[in-house]
Amino acid sequence: MRNLGRCFFGVLAVALRQPDSTQVQPFRRALTCVRLLLDFTMMAQYRSHTPETISYMEEYATQFHKTKDIFLEFHISKRTQEKADVLRKELRRQRAHMRGRVPPSQ
User: Fold this and answer.
1) pLDDT, tens digit, 9 for 90 and up, residues 49-87
2) What percent of the chain is helix, strand and coil (3-state, nearest 5)?
């Protein structure tokens, strides 16, 4: 989980490296949200906790919940999921049709 988190945060940071002026604040907020989630999971992996580590975890969780709304615009609704399923089925049908028309390679 730790390595996955490091990779994910690194990929996200690179992907959001050069935002235009309208994207700067949302991108910073998205990076902050992901960093808070990763910090929380890293602390949760400790074998034992002190009142100090628990307070850190509580703060990370609180701040995460305050910033997670940045991802709501990307939430998939049932209608969007149904449209994606229809498009996926159509694409598969087209590919199967194309495979039938192309002679096999030698």
Assistant:
1) 999 999 999 999 999 999 999 888 767 778 888 888 898
2) 80, 0, 20
pLDDT tens sequence across 18-36 = 777 777 788 888 889 888 9
Neighbours of 91 (CB within 10 A): 10
Three-state secondary-structure class, residue 103: coil
pTM: 0.60
Phi, psi for residue 4 in degrees, rounded to 5: -60, -45
Q: What residue type is assigned to position 88 of the chain?
A: R
Report yes or no: 26 and 70 within 8 Å, Cβ to Cβ.
yes
DSSP state at residue 22: T
Distances (CA, A) of 83 to 56, 68, 73: 42, 25, 17
Q: Which of 42, 35, 45 is nearest to 68 (CA)?
A: 35
DSSP string, 70-105: GGGGGPPPHHHHHHHHHHHHHHHHHHHHHHHHSPPP
